[in-house]
Amino acid sequence: MTASEPANSDSSETNPPSSDITPEVIFLGTGTSVGVPAIGCECDVCQSTDPRNNRTRCAILIRLPEGNLLIDTPPDLRTQLLREKIGLVHAVVFTHEHADHIYGLDDLRLFPFRLQRPVPLYCREEVESRIRTSYDYAFSTRTQTHAGSRPQLQIHSINNGDSFEVLGVQMTPVPLKHGPHFDVLGFRMGDFAYCTDTNHIPESSMERLRGLDTLVLDALRFTPHPTHFNIDEALEVIDQLQPRQAFLTHLGHDIDHGPVETSLPDHVHLAHDGLRLSMPSIS
Ligand SMILES: [Zn+2]
Ligand SMILES: [Zn+2]
Ligand SMILES: [Zn+2]
C-alpha cells in the first residue's frame, strides 16, 4: 500500500468534534516566509537553543465544538498537525495566496476518507485562482488511477464584506493591505482576531477590530519592511485598538524571543509555535 492509496486506512475519525470542547487557538506556525532558523544562517537567533526561536511558517488552528478550523496551509503543515496532535482538519480558511500560506494544502489529501466528504476551503477569488493553478491535478477531469490520488477540495467563495459561517462560528473578514498592491484577509471570530501579513489596516477594517479580547498581529522585525508591520508599527496599531491582549506573529530571525518578549508592554506578547490560548468566547 502506498501513501496515496488509503483504501485500507481506518475510516474512523481521530479527535472527533465534541460539544465538550472549549474553543482554543493553537499557533501551528509563527515564522516568516522562510521560517526560523533560516537555512544557512548563523545568526544568534537561528543558532538559538530556545525552542521559542524555532518558528515554522504561519498558521493557526482553532479547535471548536464542531471541528478543527485551520487558517492557511503552510508548507510545514504535516509536521505542525502531528506535533500538536490535532487529528483531522474539518475546514480551512485562507488569508491570501502567498506560497508560505498555501503550499501545504496537499497534506489534507487523506482527510476526505476519514471525514467521508471533501475538505471545505473558504477563500477569495485570487486565492482560489492560485490554488486551481498550483494544484491543477486536484481539479483534473481525468479518471483517478486510484482513490486518494488527488485531493478532494470543495471551494467556497468569500469576499471582503460579508460574514460567513464555518463549523458553527460566524467569521467576519477584515480586509488588510500587504504592501501597496496586495490584499489579504484577516478574520474576526467573536472577540478574537487574526491579522497576519499586513502593513496597513484601512480605517473601515480598524472599525471591525474594535472591542477585541485578543488580537494576533503581524510583526516581522524591528526595521521597516514594505509589506509587513515592524514591531513599532504593530504596537502603534495595538495602542489604537486597545485589545485586552495581543500576540505578534510572522516573526523573522531578528526577533530573539526571550529579550524581546521582556521588552514589550505587559499586554503584548510574542506568539510562538505550540502556544495555545483558551478562547471560550469564540463560539
Ligand atoms: Zn506570510
Ligand atoms: Zn538568522
Ligand atoms: Zn504574504
UniProtKB/TrEMBL annotation:
<feature type="compositionally biased region" description="Polar residues">
    <location>
        <begin position="1"/>
        <end position="21"/>
    </location>
</feature>
<feature type="region of interest" description="Disordered">
    <location>
        <begin position="1"/>
        <end position="24"/>
    </location>
</feature>
<dbReference type="InterPro" id="IPR036866">
    <property type="entry name" value="RibonucZ/Hydroxyglut_hydro"/>
</dbReference>
<dbReference type="Pfam" id="PF12706">
    <property type="entry name" value="Lactamase_B_2"/>
</dbReference>
<feature type="domain" description="Metallo-beta-lactamase">
    <location>
        <begin position="56"/>
        <end position="250"/>
    </location>
</feature>
<dbReference type="InterPro" id="IPR001279">
    <property type="entry name" value="Metallo-B-lactamas"/>
</dbReference>
<protein>
    <submittedName>
        <fullName>MBL fold metallo-hydrolase</fullName>
    </submittedName>
</protein>
